[in-house]
Amino acid sequence: MIKKIVLSTVILLIFLFVSSLQGAASGSVVVDRVVAVVNGEIITLSDLQREEARNKKAERKLDESNILEDMIDRKLQIAAAKRAGIDVTDKELAEAIADITKRNNMDAKQFETALAKEGLSLDQYKVELKEQMTLSRIFNKYVRSTIAVDEAEARAFYQKNIKNYILPEEIHVRQIFLPLPENALPDKINAIEKKAQEVYTRAKNGEDFIRLVREVSEGVTVSQDGDLGFMQRAQVVAEIAEAIRLLKPGEITQPFLSAGGYNIIRLEEVRSPVKPYEKVKDEIMGMLYQQKMEYTYRSWLQSLRSESQIENRL
After folding, report:
1. Which CATH class is domain 167-271?
2. I need a surface site. Which of 17, 117, 126, 190 has the fewest CB within 10 A?
C-alpha cells in the first residue's frame, strides 16, 4: 500500500513538472528572470519593474536601461558601505522614522496608513529608508568629505567668466526741462518751443550745460543740476530713449516733447556695469562645489565598477 502511495506521488510530481515545462514553452506561465548580476547578487525583472513604478510615481523620466544602471550603482555603494563598516542600527532607524512622523504631524498608525496608500508596508519602508541612510553615509565619506572650494578658485572663475556677470547697459543723462502750462494757447506753446530752440543753440555753441540748467530749466531735477542719474536703456521713457538712441557721450538732443514739456537731453555716459564679486561669491562657490561633487561621485562610481563583476542581461 505504501509503495503504491509513493509511486503515485512520484508520478504526480513528474506530471506537474512536465506540465510546467509545457506551460512555459507555450507562454502561459510568466517566470521572473535575472536582468543583472552584481558581484554575485542578482537584480530581477520584478525588482526593475518595481523601481520603474517608483520612478514613474516620482515623475523621474528615465528609461529602463538607465534605471537598471542606477540599481547597479546602488548595489555597488551598499557593498562598499559594508566593506567600510558603515551601517545603520535599528535604534538609528527607529529614531529616523520617529523624526519623519513628527515632522509630518502623524502618529505611528497614521504613518502606516499613509505608507499603505503608497503601496508600502512599514517593513518595506524600513528596508528602503535603511538603504537610503546607508547610501547617504557612504556618499558623505567618499565624496562629500573630500570636496572643498576655496576663495582663490571662486575669484579665478569670476575673472575668467566676467562676461557672465555683465548687467544690462546703463545710460547717464542730464536734462533741461521747459514745462508747458495746462491748456496753453498756441502762442504760449510757440514761445516755449522757441525758447527751447534758443537754449539748444546756446548749448550746441559750447555754453556750459549745467549753467543752462540752473538758468532756464524747471522741474524736480533742477536741484540736481538736471541729473537723471544712471538708468537701464529698457527702463527709459520712450521719447527720451528714441531721442538719445544715436547719441555719443557729450552730445545733446534737439528739443522734443515729453512729460508735458520740452526736453533737451545731454548724454553723459554709457556703461555696462558688472555684478561685484561679493554679490555672486556664494553663487559661484555653490556652483563649483556642485561641479566637483558630481565629478568626484562619477569617478568614485567608476572605480567601484572597475573593481567589480557586473553582468547586465537586459
Report:
1. alpha beta
2. 117
The position carrying cell 559594508 is 82
- Containing H/E element for 99? helix 90-103
Domain locations along the chain: 88-135, 167-271
Q: Name the grid cell of 284.
A: 559661484
Instruction: Report d(CA 59, CA 195) in Å as an integer.
Output: 69
Nearest to 127 by CA among 68, 73, 50: 50
Give bridge partners of residue 264 from the DSSP assignment.
176
SS3 of 269, please? strand
- Other C-beta atoms closer than 10 Å to the C-beta of 38 total 21
Kindly report, residue by residue over 23-68, the tens digit of the pLDDT: 334 444 446 899 999 999 999 999 999 899 888 888 888 899 999 9
CA distances from 79 to 2, 38, 146, 313 (A): 51, 10, 20, 21
3-state class (DSSP) for residue 72: helix
3-class DSSP state of 159 = helix
- For the chain, which residues score pLDDT lower than 70? 1-31
Q: For residues 308 and 39, is the Cβ–Cβ distance under 8 A? A: yes
Contact 259, 237 (CB under 8 A): yes
Tell me the pTM: 0.68
Q: Distance (Å, rounded) from C-alpha 99 to C-alpha 106?
A: 10
